[in-house]
Design brief:
about 500 residues, four-stranded antiparallel β-sheet, alpha+beta, 4 domains
Length: about 500
């Protein structure tokens, strides 16, 4: 930001186009500028005195340019800047122009102009961006091996874009949450997306092509998917990712865990968004998340959301609790008290399912939308209790534990008896799941099940992996490799359906 010296006006003035002031002599121009900057005369009177037929508001737009010390990066010529209006002499900010090559330095943005030098710079940047994209895309991610959450994020990412084809562009925010930004950041870190070639240097705050690291305005950047789906072309891949078409045989535990996580995050973000104007009463996101998690163990998401809205619009209640609202957890405590006063089922004159769908639309979280459209397929999820957190497991009695660990089944002759009544099976990397009328049994070894418990985050303090009830199957005993191979062979050659 520069200051213009309005008392030193005898300068070389330059006009880039014909206008009313250009016809004045140097002496008359200096006198007019002195009247304009250093007198109390009205602009209309100044124009009349100098015999100029123009509107007073046009004078500032027709002021001349002067040479400044800053030089053009391409031809080293001194740049030109238009002198400021009378009210901006202490805050002199205008575009700077090179008269030789036409290069423009914009004072409001860091955008490159359309001069030849900037076009070359933009072209070089895009070439480097394309090379970086080529390096990243050499290791495309196999869609079928991604976690369920990554698949949901990808679906939400595409749905957030109004144009479902070509390059991806996604907003930083999506209505009332910052979920869009978090999804984009997560996918970028996993290298499931990368910037396309058609981006501009101005879209990035920082970029290092060598290390392939970058930071920028996610709202402006165009993206490419770094996903491979079988032998699909780009259009087929987009459809598969958007609608999660290859999403069979979902793990129930993974689905319920993500269900819970999305519900808590969505309502936490909504709470923070709805109460951001109550800055004096809004606690940290972590604190709100803890309260939301606690309330969702007793109330549906719909009830929690409706309580937030009804409390915000209950002006008598807010006025009555005005002093309490200034506490750090003020509004949150008020919501807690109000929801506990509310019965768990209340009639509003509208069908329960319709109320729940309307609540979900009001929440309008892209990640939640993708999950409840493609995974659970339940638009009325807000009216239902979210899945409970898995209870922490208790250790088995010592004699039962000793018997389970010490004894490993190796007798393959019992396999026909074991499979009596089996309905279907699936062979996984952790063992063989066999489905019976009364439940599912996992046939596996100790090491594979320990790995599974660790992956599912079931190795909590105070309980051990073998005693968790977080699995959606029963573990009756452990089996030798010989037994498992024979079991797999028998199942493959049987009439039992493989899932």
């Amino acid at each position: 930001m520069d200051t213009f010296d309005s008392h030193s006006l005898d300068r070389d003035y330059i006009f880039l186009q014909d206008n009313h002031l250009k016809q004045l002599s140097q002496d008359d121009l200096v006198q007019l500028l002195d009247d304009y900057y250093n007198s109390d005369n009205k602009v209309v009177d100044i124009l009349s005195r100098h015999h100029l037929s123009m509107r007073p508001g046009d004078l500032s737009r027709e002021l001349p340019y002067i040479k400044i010390e800053e030089r053009c990066p391409y031809d080293n010529s001194r740049l030109l800047e238009q002198i400021p209006s009378k009210t901006r002499t202490q805050n002199w900010l205008n575009n700077k122009i090179c008269r030789q090559c036409g290069h423009t330095v914009y004072y409001q943005t860091n955008y490159l102009c359309d001069c030849f030098g900037c076009q070359e710079k933009r072209s070089e940047f895009r070439d480097d961006l394309a090379k970086m994209g080529t390096k990243i895309s050499k290791q495309k991610k196999d869609y079928q091996k991604l976690s369920l959450e990554s698949k949901v994020d990808l679906s939400a990412f595409i749905k957030m874009d109004n144009n479902p084809f070509g390059y991806r562009k996604v907003g930083v925010t999506h209505k009332n949450t910052d979920t869009g930004f978090l999804i984009t950041e997560s996918l970028k870190e996993q290298k499931l997306i990368y910037p396309s070639r058609d981006n501009d240097p101005e879209d990035f705050d920082k970029i290092d092509f060598k290390s392939m690291s970058y930071r920028g305005n996610w709202e402006e950047i165009n993206w490419e998917l770094n996903i491979k789906v079988l032998n699909y072309d780009y259009r087929q891949t987009l459809d598969t990712v958007e609608y999660m078409m290859l999403n069979q045989d979902l793990d129930d535990f993974e689905v319920e865990s993500l269900y819970r996580k999305i519900a808590i995050e969505s309502l936490t973000n909504y709470f923070l968004y709805s109460t951001e104007f109550l800055s004096y009463a809004t606690p940290s996101k972590e604190t709100v998340q803890q309260v939301v998690q606690e309330l969702l163990s007793e109330y549906t998401p719909e009830m929690f959301l409706e309580t937030i809205l009804s409390t915000l619009h209950n002006y008598d209640l807010l006025a009555k609790n005005r002093e309490k609202l200034f506490e750090k957890k003020g509004f949150m405590n008020l919501v807690q008290n109000e929801i506990k006063k509310t019965k768990k089922s209340k009639g509003t004159g509208r069908p329960a399912e319709k109320r729940s769908i309307e609540a979900a639309e009001l929440l309008s979280d892209p990640k939640a939308d993708a999950f409840f459209e493609n995974v659970v397929d339940d638009p009325a999820w807000m009216g239902k209790m979210i899945p409970a957190e898995n209870d922490s497991a208790q250790k088995l009695p010592a004699h039962e534990l000793e018997a389970m660990i010490d004894y490993v089944e190796d007798d393959i002759s019992i396999i026909p008896e074991e499979l009596a009544g089996a309905k279907s099976y699936s062979i996984t990397e952790h063992g063989i799941l066999v489905n019976y009328k009364l439940g599912t049994i996992m046939y596996s070894d100790q090491l594979s099940l320990y790995k599974l418990a660790k992956e599912k985050n079931l190795l909590s303090e105070g309980s051990d992996w073998w005693s968790t009830n977080g699995f959606n199957f029963t573990v009756e005993k452990f089996y030798s490799l010989k037994f498992l191979l024979e079991l797999a062979k028998t199942l493959t050659n049987s009439n039992i359906k493989q899932k």
